Amino acid sequence: MAKPVHRTAAGTSPDETIEKLTLELRRGVIVLACLSQLDEPSYGYELQQRLATRGMEIEQGTLYPLLRRLEEQGLLGEEWVVEGSRPRKYYRLTDAGKRARAELEEQWNAMSAVLDALLAPEHGG
User: Fold this and answer.
1) pLDDT for 73-87, tens place per residue?
2) Is residue 90 classed exposed, middle or buried when 0-12, 13-18 and 19+ CB atoms within 10 A define those classes?
3) Structural domain contains residue 83
4) How many domains does the chain have?
5) Which of 64, 68, 71, 85 has a 20 to 30 Å separation from 37 between CA atoms?
6) What is the DSSP letter of 75?
7) Residue-range definition of the domain harbouring residue 47
8) pTM for this one?
9) Where does residue 35 rank: exposed (0-12), middle (13-18), buried (19+ CB within 10 A)?
10) Domain presence at residue 74
């Protein structure tokens, strides 16, 4: 007999809810993850692979629009380089991007410390 699937008032299962919450959590850290890896110029696929090897897998359909948005916000600069037969668009942090990364890193460290304290067993976590 199949195990019954419990649904929330919104009609989703607890597993689907956790999946959505995990996605929201990841969205909140992807910008900092990308900025943290662009001290040296990098093209999109190279950045994607670097992030993946460090445990942060990002789909191309998420990464490239994010890179364009960060560029439009003035946090990234770009340069086309022809290597072999195909040109590649290299992204690099601008001065504004370096300041944003430093500020976001500071904010992340502060939030992480608070969450570590909240999740500690002696605080009910």
Assistant:
1) 999 999 999 888 889
2) buried
3) yes
4) 1
5) 85
6) S
7) 41-107
8) 0.81
9) buried
10) yes
